[in-house]
Design brief:
By secondary structure, this protein is an all-alpha fold. It has 15 helices and no strands. It has one domain. The protein starts with a helix and ends with a helix.
Length: 314
């Protein structure tokens, strides 16, 4: 009888212990859920694939207060995500423009008999610069939707996402421009002190890319079809920005176009600095920089006015 009672008591204790364990486990799960780290949230959003886990580990170290450091970390993560799953990785950032250069070089030298000096470097630089603009703008179209988990789970300035995205694109550009400089040395480009002008040119390019990206994304939140329209605009811009021929040929026919399309000045001064070794066109240098700054200010104004609507639609 005593044995039976003891067994029942033990059974009750075991059940109580199990119940307590279950309750504790539920409590721990709730605590774990409530205190889930940002990296875990990111991994969940990335559907727990290998890339997501790597990104998650990186984002875990995002600083909460240092804005500049946060932007830099986000740019690094975007850059790694772009090439991580590709077998050739960063080489794809070079292979694509090299393939375009080869095709256009063969066509324009053999069919159209182009007489541009050092035409292969002429093409190389033009395609690289336009490629940055194309990638920075097209890649930004859905940036707020794709980064919604960041906006919802940490205090991040939405404009910082555009800055970090543009920086990540320029990281790939830095690799390509290094390859260009190596080619330029062997193909005897004229390097001299006028190379300094590439700095304000690249600053202008960065500002124009970011301002355009902000405006595009603001429009894309409300009008999904903007991405198709932008593909057409990028195509037109490629053929009307002096990438395959001299900028001066366009200016001779449409003089006012140089004020509408900043890439005419950007490409002209970039080639002056990194190909011909001649002084920049100071008027275009200053005008394009002003154009970019005004574009960013307008884009920021429009974005701030629509920010509450954007947040509702995300």
């Amino acid at each position: 009888m005593v044995l039976i009672i003891n067994q029942k008591v033990n059974s009750i204790n075991d059940k109580g212990t199990n119940f307590a364990c279950i309750r504790n486990n539920r409590h721990m799960k709730q605590i774990t859920h409530d205190s889930a780290t940002f990296a875990t949230i990111l991994v969940h959003v990335e559907k727990c694939n290998m890339l997501g886990s790597i990104v998650g580990r990186a984002v875990k170290y995002l600083p909460e207060n240092n804005r500049l450091e946060r932007i830099w970390k986000l740019a690094q993560i975007d850059f790694l995500r772009r090439y991580y799953n590709d077998r050739l990785g960063l080489l794809w950032a070079l292979i694509n423009p090299l393939f375009q250069i080869a095709v256009y070089y063969l066509v324009f030298t053999n069919i159209f008999n182009s007489r541009e000096e050092n035409f292969i470097l002429f093409l190389f630089l033009g395609i690289l610069i336009w490629g940055v603009f194309s990638e920075a703008t097209k890649g930004s179209l859905a940036i707020l939707r794709s980064k919604r988990y960041l906006i919802e789970n940490i205090q991040v300035n939405k404009l910082d996402l555009f800055i970090s995205h543009t920086i990540s694109v320029f990281m790939g550009f830095a690799f390509n421009i290094t390859i260009y400089l190596i080619f330029a040395v062997f193909l005897e480009a004229n390097f001299n002190l006028n190379i300094w002008a590439i700095v304000p040119v690249l600053i202008t390019l960065f500002i124009v890319c970011m301002g355009t990206a902000i405006l595009l994304n603001t429009a894309y939140i409300f009008i999904d079809d903007i991405k198709h329209l932008w593909d057409i605009i990028v195509f037109i811009g490629f053929w009307s920005s002096g990438i395959l021929y001299s900028v001066d040929k366009i200016v001779e026919v449409f003089p006012a176009f140089v004020y509408l399309n900043p890439f005419l000045g950007i490409l002209k001064n970039a080639r002056n600095a990194l190909l011909y070794g001649i002084p920049p066109d100071y008027f275009l240098l200053l005008y394009n920089l002003t154009y970019g700054l005004v574009l960013v200010l307008v884009a920021n104004f429009v974005f701030r006015k629509c920010e509450h609507l954007i947040t509702e639609k995300l």
